[in-house]
Design goal:
alpha+beta, ATP binding, Rossmann fold, OB fold (Dihydrolipoamide Acetyltransferase, E2P), ATP hydrolysis activity, translocase, binds adenosine-5'-triphosphate, about 375 residues, 2 domains, five-stranded antiparallel beta sheet
Length: about 375
């Protein structure tokens, strides 16, 4: 299947959903660019499935509109929308073989000659040799691929995926993430993927909307969200962040803060706009951006790096990295991940250390006003 669609962007404008007095989705505006792999990411209950179901037409919005390109589809029933949904439960027909399952949508529409399209789909999901198998003869990942093929054969403009990999074990999940990404690139249509798994969203999506409490907290490319979280929720939901409470000493291109008796630099363009001297700032740095030196070796640390002193309280070797927990005057329980270090050069609990990192890898968060 090589036809690239021309359906246009998915646009949600002021869309919300309330159940009685409970608001599952707060009014939100979201544009999903045509042809992108877009993830709605958040913890259970944050409203991501409800948002997806409003795009599908399976849920009526309380307010707002859904458009596909120039077309307002808010009042169209699901079957009249050019979208298809793949659910976590693949819901394949157990008595039909794989090719019949895939052909189902075409046959229901009265299309008789389906072989060419079914073969194309089987090839797309790399199950050509399983055409005559029944679903129970396939692995979970293969069944999920059949569900994707069955949805794509209808040539939707948008494929909606609701935790489609949720039932798979971790290894298979990882394989299927790459597989779904490959399929999306090949067919070129818009995929909107709901997941609570941040690694999954980061692996697959061009853009991720991080949802919390029925709102989109932040929208962006995975690397941007990871490097520039704007709220503590995003900083903690996507990976691990060290967040150090600090007081602003100077503002400018770089913001200088004091924390635990020392000074740290935070790039001004990675901090909230309303930072003022004397105000509070949460200073964030990812554990893998930090290096450790013995306190005795502090002189070897290059000038210009952010540094705080501390004492190792725990260290664990987890294969790809050694993970340290460090108590510091700047904050207790700081996390540091160091890669590729020899077993005998690892630091042991009790060691006095200096944590140091490039200020460019530092971000600032406004602790008092979490969503800006
Ligand atoms: P999960 O990953 O657990 O599915 P989610 O982020 O997809 O979570 P939603 O399914 O969108 O969350 O639900 C958002 C909130 O709306 C939840 O608190 C849920 O209990 C509530 N909710 C969903 N459907 C209904 C309904 N039909 N009636 C009442 N409340 C509902």
């Amino acid at each position: 299947m090589t036809d690239k669609n021309t359906g246009g962007d998915v646009r949600l404008r002021g869309i919300s959903k309330s159940y009685g007095s409970f608001t599952a989705v707060q009014p939100l505006d979201l544009t999903v660019p045509q042809g992108s792999f877009f993830a709605l990411l958040g913890a259970s209950g944050c409203g991501k499935t409800t948002t997806l179901r409003m795009i599908a037409g399976l849920e009526d919005p309380t307010t707002g509109t859904v458009s596909l390109g120039d077309r307002d589809v808010t009042d169209l029933p699901p079957y009249k929308r050019p979208v298809n949904t793949v659910f976590q439960s693949y819901a394949l027909f157990p008595h039909m073989d794989i090719q019949e399952n895939i052909a189902f949508g075409l046959r229901r529409r009265g299309i008789k000659s389906v072989k060419k399209q079914v073969d194309e789909m089987l090839e797309l999901v790399q199950l050509g040799d399983k055409a005559r198998h029944k679903p129970h003869q396939l692995s979970g990942g293969q069944q999920q691929r059949v569900a994707v093929a069955r949805a794509l054969i209808n040539h939707p403009q948008v494929l909606l995926l609701d935790e489609p990999l949720g039932a798979l074990d971790l290894k298979l999940r990882r394989q299927m993430q790459l597989e779904l990404k490959r399929i999306q690139t090949e067919v070129g249509i818009t995929f909107v993927h709901v997941t609570h798994d941040q690694e999954e969203a980061m692996t697959m999506a061009d853009q991720v909307a991080v949802m919390n409490g029925g709102r989109v907290e932040q929208l962006g490319a995975p690397a941007d969200l990871y490097e520039n979280p704007r709220t503590t929720f995003v900083a903690n939901f996507l990976g691990t962040s060290n967040l150090i409470e600090a007081e602003v000493a100077e503002t400018g291109t770089d913001i200088v803060v004091t924390a635990g008796g020392g000074k740290l630099k935070v790039p001004g363009d990675r901090s909230p706009s309303a930072v003022r001297s004397g105000g509070k700032l949460l200073v964030g740095v990812r554990p893998e951006k930090i290096s450790l030196a013995h306190a005795d070796d502090e002189g070897t640390i290059a000038d210009g790096r952010n540094r705080v002193t501390g004492r190792i309280v725990d260290s664990s070797f987890i294969g790809v990295s050694t993970q340290y927990v460090v108590d510091s005057p700047a904050g207790a329980g700081l996390q540091v991940y160091e890669q590729n270090i020899e077993r005998d050069t690892r630091l042991v609990p009790g060691a006095e250390v200096v944590l140091h990192w490039n200020p460019a890898h530092t971000f600032g968060l406004d602790a008092s006003q979490d969503i800006d």
